[in-house]
Amino acid sequence: MKHFDCPVIGRRPSQEFVCSGSSIGILLMEDAAAAREALYFGDATARVKREWWYHKPSRLWFLLERHTGTDTVVSVELATQVHPHDSP
Amino acid sequence: MTHNFVSYNATMSLRLIKYALNRQHAEPRFFNTPDALRDTYDVVIIGGGGHGLACAYHLAAEHGIRRIAVIEKAYLGGGNTGRNTTIVRSNYLTPEGVLFYQRSVELFQQLATTLDLNLFYSTRGHFTLAHSEATLRTMRWRAEVNQHYGVDSELVSADEVKKACPQIDISCGGNHPILGALFHAPGAIVRHDAVAWGYARRASQLGVEIFQNTEVTGIETSGGRVVAVNTSRGRIATGKVVSAVAGSTPTVLKMVGLKSPVDILPLQACVTEPMKAWLDTIIVSGTLHVYVSQTARGELVMGAAVDPAELHSTRSSLEFVSSLADQMLDLFPFLAGVKIVRQWAGMADMTPDFAPVMGLTEVGGFYLDAGWGTWGFKATPVCGETMAFTVAHDTNHRLIESFGMERFHRLAMLGEKGAAAVGH
């Protein structure tokens, strides 16, 4: 069973979380071409990605840095503490 | 069972008698294993799965292109071709999808004859269960689109589901009762390994060269066109490259400097121990995230939706098997004592609209057969046919015109999620 080690809520099973995809910053609709690039033409090779994860029982949002090749979590941050450019 | 199956068995018996009377019992190898790569090929196909091999077969059989190399990193059919749950159907949602998969079912129904190999193609009937009014609405829509294009597809009542599958608990443990289903009579299962091996044998007979344990390490381009492929066994000069690599699509695209809307997520499946034949049909529930059929050996083959997050790995997990078992027991409580004997995963190349990404690309001579997510095996024959046409004529086949990568620039999505998400 996979667990996440969270600095705020401790060690929790992964099923309590929902992945909401990569953090791609704030998209400005005035720049449609840049928005399309960010939405559809990202780098999908195996690498460390910054992702939004939601913890259902505590209703908290987290930003995880996770390697998509090994499933190793590099860092976990509570979403309220991060830069406003990371929007869900 | 199809007529193919019966008639082929008669042929098989004659072959057995001949075989028994023959002193020399060595059967020919299924496909050739050339010692070395040639310096140049007309077409290089990356990926020795069903799609790549079907493309090689159609190029050789219908377009007269014989100098073809199929390059496979591991072993033949060892990727998603051998990891899916073998379901064939065409009851999709968009007109483009319905026409495409309908052609695939037609080709599948003839495939045992085409490949001269018993593929155990077994027409079972395919029920997609509805547990809510909203799902019934989508199914009515699907049935209308399907019927318009001549696909045998209809909405049926819960009673009809119970009649076709008496073992099912229509109330689903009282949690999410079955209200009806979309029934697709041509829905079938087929031996997936045999499909890959059958294509490999026919392609090989036509002169196609298949290289296993050979990894593509780079693709050379010049002036926006493909000129060569570098492999772990040497360089190949070629003007045409087909990528049919499912989970390795982002890696191969990076070699030609292309980005794609494909994300890689694991899709898991498992089988139970064999039991007496009791499940004639294919049962799918999008709400419960399960699909199940029973093989000729008596095992139940079961699968679910993709894993919740991106991952380039074929690891399997306890989370998957426990959640699948939980949902299966809502449908079939009597399976509580049945053991699961194997589980595995494939790397699905998912697109945002659940439709594939196929055909010509911005790089001249580089053809893409990707974005097959969780719906690729059933498209194997039609992908072979349409990709071969596209490569031979350097023009997209009419059936794949809407599947090009440029649709994401135009935001012209093909919303196929309602028919492809769980209903494999």
In short:
The complex is a heterodimer of chains A (88) and B (424). With 88 residues, chain A is mostly beta strands. Chain A has one helix at residues 32-40, and strands at residues 3-6, 10-13, 17-22, 48-55, 60-67, 73-78.
What does this molecule look like?
The complex is a heterodimer of chains A (88) and B (424). Chain A has 88 residues and is mainly beta. Chain A has one domain (1-23, 47-88): 2-Layer Sandwich (Folate-binding fold), CATH 3.30.2270. Helix content of chain A is 10%, strand content 41%. Chain A contains 1 helix and 6 strands; from the N terminus they run βββαβββ. Chain A has one helix spanning 32-40, and strands at 3-6, 10-13, 17-22, 48-55, 60-67, 73-78. In chain A, the strands form 2 sheets. Chain A has a 4-stranded antiparallel sheet, with no helix packed on it. A two-stranded antiparallel ribbon of chain A has the order 1-2. In chain A, strand 4 and strand 5 (60-67) form a beta hairpin. The two termini of chain A are 27 Å apart. The model of chain A has no long low-confidence stretch (mean pLDDT 84). Chain B is an alpha+beta fold. Chain B has 2 domains: 34-90 and 92-117 and 192-261 and 353-420, FAD/NAD(P)-binding domain (3-Layer(bba) Sandwich); 127-185 and 263-350, D-Amino Acid Oxidase, Chain A, domain 2 (2-Layer Sandwich), CATH 3.30.9. Chain B has helices at 3-21, 50-62, 95-115, 133-148, 158-164, 192-205, 249-255, 318-331, 380-393, 407-410, 417-420; strands at 43-46, 68-71, 87-88, 122-123, 126-130, 154-157, 180-184, 188-189, 209-211, 216-222, 225-231, 234-237, 241-243, 263-272, 282-285, 290-294, 300-303, 340-350, 357-360, 366-370. In chain B, the strands form 4 sheets. Chain B has an 8-stranded mixed sheet with strand order 6-7-5-15-16-17-14-18. In chain B, strands 9-2-1-13-20-19 form a 6-stranded mixed sheet, sandwiched between helices. In chain B, helix 2 links the parallel strand 1 (43-46) and strand 2 (68-71). The longest helix of chain B has 21 residues, at 95-115. Chain B is globular. Classes of the chains: A mainly beta (88), B alpha+beta (424). Chains A and B meet through strand 3 and helix 1 of A and helix 7 and helix 8 of B.
